[in-house]
TrEMBL record:
It holds the Pfam family N_methyl. This is General secretion pathway GspH domain-containing protein. The keyword Membrane applies. The chain crosses the membrane at residues 17-42. SUPFAM superfamilies: Pili subunits. Keywords: Membrane, Transmembrane, Transmembrane helix.
Amino acid sequence: MVDINLKLKNAGTIRRFFILMSSPGFTMIELIATMVIMAILASSTITNYSKFNMGLRIFEEVKDMSRKIIYARDYCTARKEIFYLKVDADADQYSLFRQNSSTALMLPNESSHQFDLPSYIDISATNVDAGGLEFDAIMGEPQSITANATITIGDFTITIENPTGYIHVQ
């Protein structure tokens, strides 16, 4: 009898912290600590997700703008027409023209020749002249520029290579 009371009093090998150690599983303290750590990690992930998601939306808009410019250039080249690209950085829009700088280019499945960027997009810099960037009718090469033409939107830049007319996003 003395031996049993001694084990209970000193919390020996049979009982530690008032929990039987012979039963498998986790203690309540371990479960609560794990849930607290998971809640902290989840909250930090959720707060950073909106910034990541906005970056993806901006990148998709820049890629869409690049694709439309490439398609318009190839569309005009196939028809042996001169293509003009006008970029208005103040209004955050760009326009497509053919033959001369005032004849609107209506691409198939598009409702306008002028494209307005969403409100969360800002054209921060461009070196495309206000009169427009002209691409020739035979090879689709940019004319009247000595350096690469660029359109900067946020962290991304659309580059039109001189003299080839290769268009890519960085």
